[in-house]
Amino acid sequence: xxxxxxxxxxxxxxxxxxxxxxxxxxxxxxxxxxxxxxxxxxxxxxxxxxxxxxxxxxxxxxxxxxxxxxxxxxxxxxxxxxxxxxxxxxxxxxxxxxxxxxxxxxxxxxxxxxxxxxxxxxxxxxxxxxxxxxxxxxxxxxxxxxxxxxxxxxxxxxxxxxxxxxxxxxxxxxxxxxxxxxxxxxxxxxxxxxxxxxxxxxxxxxxxxxxxxxxxxxx
Amino acid sequence: xxxxxxxxxxxxxxxxxxxxxxxxxxxxxxxxxxxxxxxxxxxxxxxxxxxxxxxxxxxxxxxxxxxxxxxxxxxxxxxxxxxxxxxxxxxxxxxxxxxxxxxxxxxxxxxxxxxxxxxxxxxxxxxxxxxxxxxxxxxxxxxxxxxxxxxxxxxxxxxxxxxxxxxxxxxxxxxxxxxxxxxxxxxxxxxxxxxxxxxxxxxxxxxxxxxxxxxxxxx
DNA sequence: AATTAAATTTAGATTTGTCTAAAAATAATT
DNA sequence: AATTATTTTTAGACAAATCTAAATTTAATT
Lengths: 219, 219
Known about the structure:
The structure is a homodimer.
Chain A: H1 5-17, H2 26-32, H3 37-49, E1 53-55, E2 61-63, H4 65-87, H5 97-103, H6 109-119, E3 144-145, E4 155-160, H7 165-174, E5 181-188, E6 193-198, E7 204-206, H8 208-212, E8 214-218
Helix pairs in contact in A: 1-4, 2-3, 4-5, 4-6
The structure holds a DNA duplex.
């Protein structure tokens, strides 16, 4: 079965809103989609008929297994395209969202898989959100590479990529250790170096190699 | 002003059909777009109101300057995406058309320009059709680089890129000269070498450097 | 528990792009 | 030139997605 862009946008919105426990309400959806509650009701009936969600009058909505699968496919495309725009086409990470909103509706299955392979099967998009794989599985976010940390998000060093004395010597000199709280202020695409800021210290730059050797978790 | 996917498809279809002299007829358009003549009439009125074409009842249609500009923009996107799919994502040149039909409607101007730059401002798509530049200008096809010649299209050597003795020595040894008729049987993306076939000879491979030094015209 | 407030649904209208069937205009043929 | 055939347009209807305004249900408050 195939779905319209509008239907896909509803499914995606419900997916993002239902991360908590309870059902997603009509008004929440109307706000998220910049439309009116009456329009939402109409569409929910339609999507229920297509078995993408469970919905009872006045009781809100939740995605079915099929609906979740569809949503994960759209999210996968959205985040892969964002990665492509930033990594391959040198867009700023803050200007890709709207373009990806269009690209996520391109239907070719083969395109998605080829794009994923071309990009090297990235696990996180430029904002640090996990990219679902072709089976819909997402990496758990708690242990991400410092190089994948989005700009201006506070994180805590949670691991190092090797135990080499050379690495540890460098970390000691920079006063970086497990538990150090930092954020990235800027990424330089020329050499993939990044400027980081540790609380109560001046910002300073570290190399791509060092950033790749550090794991952090968002706090 | 912005246009729907349907409107863009009409404009593109008219553009392709009006290459000759006369006006494009309602029935021609209906056939091209797999729709009915009545639907075409409705849309032509709408597009005329938007000043994209000139249309008089029963007399067919032609694009206005604005319409041509829009059409060239769509064709530009279509062919750039085809180039991307083949060159970057390793699609076969025969399986990209439908995907490009979707991608050509992505609206971001910045995306098109960045994509063009990333691809190295290609002049021809994988089928050998010229790609309009950002001003809508297309290269004249009669003198294309051998490396841009599509697979399995007969062409005739029409020029060489340099007059160096080294090049001419090589050409003499391979029995290639101005007027030689050949076609490409295969392109190898690993080193951009190509396998060519000259009438009454066995196929053989030539290097990227040699292919880039040869110009051909389609016959 | 009754009443007010908020959220949700229904009913009916609108826009976009399409269709069928009938009418009108143009082209082809005798 | 008159008739037939073809092409094109009009008229009216339909599906998708939306809206406003009114009705209904649920939640909150006195």
